[in-house]
Write a structure and sequence with these properties.
The complex is a heterodimer of chains A (about 280) and B (about 350). Chain A is mainly alpha-helical. In chain A, about 70% of the residues lie in helices and about 5% in strands. In chain B, a hairpin with a 2-residue loop joins strand 1 and strand 2 (about 15-25). Classes of the chains: A mainly alpha (about 280), B alpha+beta (about 350).
């Protein structure tokens, strides 16, 4: 049943390659930069031919940045750890509260339900800077400034609305009849939620969790204002590469490669759950 | 003792009344078909009985006990949904096993239970398939198997043949009565196909305008419809109707239909002057030999429909009506000819033109 000719196959291959090069070139370039010294990066014209060095990665891992002006201490690995901790904890917390809330908004009609859901969504379109000033004052008096708890709490502004609204849509798409059928078969409401609703919404939960993780990971401004050096994530920590003796392009590139790795791995892992949702046709429409 | 009893059951959503004061008794092992058009609340009624929705007023008794406070999982009810509602992430066997596992049966007992219903419904060869790999017919059988698996006392079937193709529907219509009898459960079967209702039911409950307008055996529903609406719902082609008035002539009650006096049962004499709707089933229109005493009508169209042939006829005063004859009949006329007809009394009905209720025993 294959009607594509060899030419069409070749053309498709060429086009896919072009698209991939267009979208992936920046990442490829950064990847190459991470193995070069500032001199080779900045030479004109730029060249793909160079002797790869691992100094940039070594500097990040050991926390010692050698520049022309001398040696500089930086805490990149600590920043990376902070990013992982903050993102994982805030997404986990958001899933814990957001998924049951999404179910409630999808299934039950209650007073002010729509208003509450919309208020939560509005957290996403409030400019963060507007929120930050009062927030930093409150955090000071509550003693939450520069604490993981405080940051994770603030990150709920990013993660919770996202998870709530995406997962809600997935729950709404599950036919109530499927849940009814499971309950009538002799299972409690709670078991129905665990065995039917949650597994069926899993693609949505995976997608929302991944997106929330990316947004949390990439957040800059909350952590910049509310955390000092030892609690800062990579996004803020990267500022350290702008040194008195110039911008350390090589280390920045290496730092970027290291900091996109966790997100990339998570995306690859979540992929199979994302695709799973497309292949389940259970209820006849 | 009745297995299932509805007592002045009402359900409304806000100001919208779905139904009001439903009463029904179903005995052990009885098959009651709930028949009604779209949007009459048939599915909602089943959901109330299953317990996934709550009635606005009235009570439901299963096995003589009020179940208002009993959660759906403890009602020992089996239900098959119109859209099958199979669990998409479980295989057919796991779907069928759900009610058995919920009862805490051992692995062997669950296995045996699955095998029993799967054989009965001829799906033992697809037990390992996921719902998306099943044909519609197999999905429908899996859904039925799941409802039957735990041998519930009450079986609620929500139009289970709605979404399957015509051939399978025909087969299942023949198969289901035996299957349901074997299960021994009291069955509430929802459908909007009158043939299905007639084929399966011990009794039919006709739901219209939020009420049961008639609860009776299929024969009684067909031969003695309680209202004009019921008469119209059962029969294909639908019953012919004409508005007329009861008149007294020479001490006999009669009514003018198609420009000719039709004699009425003597019991209607007392109601002289009353407006009525005269109804005659197409099967009860007899074609008489030419020159006989009867209503002369011209043949407008002749439509063969499988084993029946349907004629569209017009009386001299313009009343159009249908006649349905066996296709083998020798008296099928040509179009644009005249025929003489009369009406078989067993297929004629009289309804009050105001209330649409049946007038004569």
């Amino acid at each position: 049943m294959d009607h594509t000719s060899t030419f069409e196959k070749a053309l498709r291959g060429v086009l896919i390659t072009l698209v991939l090069i267009f979208f992936l070139f920046p990442i490829l370039w950064i990847f190459l930069m991470s193995f070069q010294t500032n001199e080779t990066i900045l030479r004109i014209p730029p060249s793909l031919v160079f002797t790869p060095i691992f100094d940039n990665y070594w500097a990040l891992v050991t926390g010692e940045l050698r520049t022309a002006a001398g040696s500089l201490q930086l805490d990149f690995m600590k920043n990376l750890w902070n990013s992982v901790l903050l993102s994982v904890c805030s997404v986990a917390l958001s899933l814990l509260f957001g998924v049951p809330a999404a179910y409630a908004f999808a299934r039950f009609k209650f007073r002010l339900g729509e208003d509450i859901a919309f208020t939560l969504l509005s957290f996403r379109f409030a400019p963060p800077l507007l929120v930050l000033l009062p927030l930093s004052l409150y955090f000071k008096s509550l003693g939450l400034t520069n604490t993981y708890v405080g940051l994770i709490w603030v990150y709920q502004l990013i993660c919770l609305p996202l998870i709530l609204w995406i997962v809600r849509g997935y729950f709404e798409d599950i036919s109530p009849d499927i849940e009814y059928a499971y309950r009538i078969s002799g299972n409690s409401w709670w078991k129905t939620f665990l065995k039917i609703s949650l597994p069926l919404a899993r693609p949505g939960i995976a997608a929302a969790g991944l997106l929330a993780f990316i947004f949390a990971w990439n957040n800059f401004v909350f952590a910049l204002i509310l955390a000092s050096a030892d609690k800062q994530p990579v996004t803020v920590g990267a500022l350290a590469f702008v040194t008195a003796s110039g911008i350390q392009y090589g280390q920045i590139a290496a730092a970027i490669i290291l900091s996109i790795t966790p997100t990339l791995l998570l995306a690859l892992y979540a992929q199979r759950y994302l695709v799973e949702g497309l292949s389940m046709g259970a209820v006849k429409g | 003792m009745s297995q299932l009893a509805l007592k002045s059951l009402s359900k409304s959503y806000g100001a919208f009344k779905v139904f009001d004061g439903l009463n029904l008794d179903a005995g052990s092992g009885e098959i009651v078909v709930i028949f009604g058009g779209s949007g009459t609340g048939k599915t909602i009624l089943l959901r109330l009985i299953a317990g996934v929705e709550e009635p606005t007023a009235g009570t439901i008794e299963l096995d003589g006990h009020d179940v208002s406070d009993i959660a759906p999982e403890h009602r020992n009810v089996g239900m098959a949904f119109q859209n099958f509602a199979l669990f998409p992430h479980m295989s057919a066997a796991e779907n069928i096993a759900t009610p058995l596992k919920a009862q805490g049966k051992s692995a062997d007992a669950v296995r045996a239970g699955i095998d029993r219903v799967a054989k009965l419904l001829k799906i033992d060869h697809v037990l390992g398939h996921a719902p998306r790999e099943l044909s519609n017919g197999q999905k429908q059988r899996t859904a039925l198997a799941r409802a039957l698996a735990a041998e519930p006392r009450i079986l609620l079937l929500d139009d289970p043949l709605r979404n399957v193709d015509a051939k399978l529907r025909f087969e299942m219509r023949l198969e289901l009565p035996r299957l349901l009898r074997q299960s021994g459960a009291t069955v509430l079967y929802v459908t909007q196909d009158y043939k299905e209702a007639m084929a399966l039911a011990d009794r039919i409950a006709v739901l219209a305008d939020g009420k049961f307008v008639q609860v009776a055996t299929p024969e009684d529903i067909y031969l003695k419809p309680a209202t004009l609406g019921v008469a119209r719902l059962f029969g294909d082609p639908a019953i012919n109707t004409a508005k007329t008035v009861i008149e007294m002539k020479n001490g006999m009650a009669s009514a003018k239909v198609g420009g000719r006096d039709i004699p009425l049962p003597a019991s209607l004499a007392a109601a002289a002057g009353r407006g009525i709707t005269f109804g005659v089933r197409p099967e009860a229109v007899n074609i008489l030999s030419p020159g006989s005493d009867g209503l002369t009508a011209s043949v407008v169209a002749v439509t063969p429909l499988n084993e029946r042939t349907v004629l569209l006829l017009q009386s001299p005063d313009g009343w159009e009506f249908l006649a349905s004859l066996p296709a083998s009949s020798t008296s099928i006329p040509e179009p644009e000819t005249d025929v003489v007809v009369d009406f078989d009394p067993s297929g004629t009905h009289f309804f009050d033109s105001q209330s649409d209720e049946r007038l004569h025993g």
